[in-house]
Amino acid sequence: MSELVIDKVQETTRKEDIQNFKIDLIRKRKQSGSLIPLLQSAQDSYGYIPEKIIYYISELVNIPAADIYGVITFYSQFRLKPLGENIIRICEGTACHVNGAKSILSVIKDEIGVDVDETTEDGKYTLQSVACLGCCSLAPVIMINDETFGNLTADSLKKVLKNYQKVEPSLHEHSSTNE
Ligand code: FES
Is there an atom of ligand 1 within 6 Å of 101 CB? Predict the structure, then answer.
């Protein structure tokens, strides 16, 4: 298998990241226990672990691809699909749970049409669930990328999501909590 395989999945990644990954492959392929660092390196470079890269690593480290899949799915840090353009994190910690996180979650699911740990088909959103976002007094809370939205109701949440769907950067510059 040639390096063409790696080059083929470069579309959305930066050249220097790929270069670093290739250097890592060369350095680590003969080291025992190099699989996890190589997978981390691949994910850092591509944003996820593309199927073709799994086969490429498999050949280099002499571990069956099926076993590598097993490792990837065992560790939650690894992804087999690219993340969406926007990451929505819904908090399901205790404070948020008792303040209606469940209904907030179902509004998000209805609005964007995906479940937790899924990405919309257009690649715009990935929905993730977290245990606490560190601002429990604002429960229920979500984050979209690095913005926090608290004290959410179904209506205020719909407004927040609508703003993101408009793809107007200025709308993202203000507001972090809902009064
Ligand atoms: S429990 Fe949701 S922010 Fe802490």
Answer: no
Interval 46-69: pLDDT, tens: 889 999 999 989 988 888 999 999
Hey, whose CA ends up nearest to atom 1 of ligand 1?
93
Q: How confident is the model at residue 12 (pLDDT cuts 50, 70, 90)?
A: low
The rounded distance, in Å, linking the Cα atoms of 108 and 103 is: 9
Q: Give domain limits for the chain.
A: 4-74, 86-172
For ligand 1, whether the C-beta of 130 sits within 6 Å is no
Find the 177 Cα to ligand 1 centroid distance in Å: 14
Q: How far is the CA of 107 from the centre of ligand 1 (A)?
A: 18
Evaluate whether the domain defined by 86-172 bears CATH number 3.40.30.10. Answer: yes
pLDDT over 70 (residue 38):
yes
